[in-house]
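Hey, I'm writing a tutorial for new members on how sequence and structure tokens pair up, and I'd like a real worked example in the thread rather than a made-up one. If someone can provide the structure for the chain below, I'll link this post from the tutorial.
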Amino acid sequence: MKRTLRFASAGGMLAVAVSLALQPQISQAREAQAILKETCQGCHLPEGDNALSRISHQRKTPEGWLMTIGRMQTMHQLQISDEDRRTLVKYLADTQGLAPSETDGVRYALERRLNTVEQIGEPTQQMCARCHSGARIALQRRPAKEWEHLVNFHLGQWPSLEYQALSRDRDWFELAKKDMVPLLAQKYPFDSKAWSDWQKSMPKAATLAGTWSFSGHLPGKGELNGVMTVSPEVGDRFKVSLDGQYADGTPFKGQGTAMLYSGYEWRGTVDVDGVSMRQVLAANNGQLTGRMFEKAHDERGLDFVAAQQGSPRLLAVQPGYVKAGSEAELTLVGSGLSGTPSFGKGVQVLEVLENTPQRVRVKVKAAADAPQGLQAVSVGKLDGPQLAVYREIAEVKVVPAFSVARVGDNGGSTPKVQGRFDAEAWGQGADGKAYRIGVFPAQWKVEPFDERAREDEDVKFAGIMQADSGVFTPGDAGPNPARKMSTNNAGNLKVIAAVDDAGKARTGEGQLIVTIQRWNNPPIP
């Protein structure tokens, strides 16, 4: 089946509001077609039926199309305005994007979860993912001929590729053409039933307008919840308002805008207490799931999930644990919450402190003999999250177990990239199986990871760990005359979290590499 760039119809584009109906979508499609003809057709040949060579034979996420246009600008001196670029990204993502199922498992790259340790199988790991993430490959679709073009582009753009590490010991070009092209075309095909079906059932953007209840967690700060109000604008755009707070009472309030791509890809920019934050979320059946992170510091981000009013859902219980034989205050977060809350066997609700459709706050008591492990939580007919009941902590894990921080500032243009950690407590059930209790407060420190790090005094130079938050701030960029051979402030550190469990210190360890700046920082790493 041949895919082409066509003028969009009412079924192929999204509407912001019912009253806007068809006209804006047709206008946008015509505008995009004009831009493609005037801006792109000089290099990309017409193929009939509004198709253009290369462009019409790829499918990508909004970030993927943005990177493509950016490459045309930097490598081929494409002249295009910011507004026209936004129009093209929107149009191409809507007409040649990815279905929700096609982004499953690799959304960490879109959400800027840069400490993810990828599990990419061979031969893709060594042939492709040694230079960029495996997710970048998995977030695009091409026919075999286009995958072959991509191989040729790589060798033409980086002619020393065959002589780099992990290429010298193999015939990289032949392997790429004969083995990788068929593999990628089979694994990530241009034509797919998932995308075809999604285009037919793509929901209208207007369905996302309204009130949303949200829950989140920011490493180094803790849990938060609140309400997000979404107001429709023209062209699948929205105004966004956030009104929430962290568990310690710190407000989380902001105003901004958002755009919907491909019927589910939500991209927002919200000013939260004077800090510009981006939202990378996926909309699915009345729920938004993803991440919010600072525009200038993507490592400073929070997990985010929201449920729309009118779509009853129980999102979270905060905190997600209670100790047997103790009392605790728990908050249930969701939409359309109504009815009696239940936390499982041995956990009694003593008092309801707050009861709204978005939040139910209660005081509970867990019996001393309450069964250890995960118990179902419900409010009326709604269930979803689980509550961990524990007697003692069996293990503490540092999350992420492996992390990278980067030196910066010191007169340079690149800011420091922090390391941010959580201390995750785990218990052991009656069946001997481990279960996750939740994130606990901890005391933090760093030590040399190995003998070389000890000799180089990495703890002294690489940066500072905040003892009470798990936030590590690396040292300044550039040579340091105080270090051996005036090297920079890189380091290899062991991250240690100590959690107090009824007077017993439970510790966990992770690894933190402090390294140089990330100069190339594309939308998809």
